[in-house]
Give the backbone structure.
Amino acid sequence: MKDGKIVVGITQGDINGVGYEVIIKTLVDTRINDFCIPIVYGSSKVAAFHRKALGIENFSLNAINSPTEANDKRSNVINCISEDVKVELAKESEEAGDAAILALERATEDLKNGLIDVLVTAPINKKNINVERFNFPGHTEYLEQKFSPNDKGVMLMVSDVLRVAILTSHCPLKNVSSLITVEAIESKLQILNKTLIQDFGIVRPRIAVLGLNPHAGDNGTLGLEEQEVIIPAIRQANSNGVLAFGPYPADGFFGAGNFANFDAVLAMYHDQGLTPFKAIAQDMGVSFTAGLPIIRTAPIHGTAYDKAGVGEVREDSFRSALYLACDIFKKRNDYAEFSANPLRKQMKKETHNPERE
């Protein structure tokens, strides 16, 4: 932190998409500067291009070379791509992919060195960024390799009313069944349980687990994954102190609003979790990479090339991502402080008892 404010690193994402639009629309509200110091990793020139395209006046980024130079009363930018980069709105290009990688690499290095506190990533195009130097399906896998190569993160979608984690994340649907194992489910439930406690301040989280097959297998008549894998995994998690329940059929679970009875939901595959989440959370949802030693959030939308430069994209999801990153930073610090000396914390809470004197 700097001057009591959280230092937020923001990567520009794909320069031809809506990343800069949601960044600028969020940071133009100067109340952001009351509690955090935003630092955009990208280009002041590209930011100016998008600002003009959007017709936004009276906004600029303070150019710096390092987070240590950041102005705590303004939004800042670290130029980490060529000044000659070409912005081509709504177009997929290799140059845009390279620019996204450069910004992410610089921000990641500063995060690793403790120069920024949290990371908020604007959308990338997984096709033009998936080159030899960045051979990862997305941000989650890249950050796993950088910060915790022996552990896996969990993609957790967060809103005010619903949290959904994905077991198999980014993989083809045909591979999902083979990736559903007792070990994988139990591990993800342990990670999810821990993040709900330390990052969201929930003392005893309740986690719902969805089935894989229609009607959660219908007692084995529509598939055996529930009987042979998912139920044993839930029981194993329960024996290890995790309050996990299920498996629940996804359609009835969300349709009847049962998600309101739980602190989080573990879905078996990407669309099983994200489709109902986006329908319920709409523009306010956030993606959080749980289970890593660093804090990274992102909006739930993509590059949205079809809307780039038009000015119609809402910034709600990106703004919520910035807020959530700061909130998790505070809660994680509070949890670490409490865990370091819980007895002292408890003693401070005790009231004076004259009978002890």
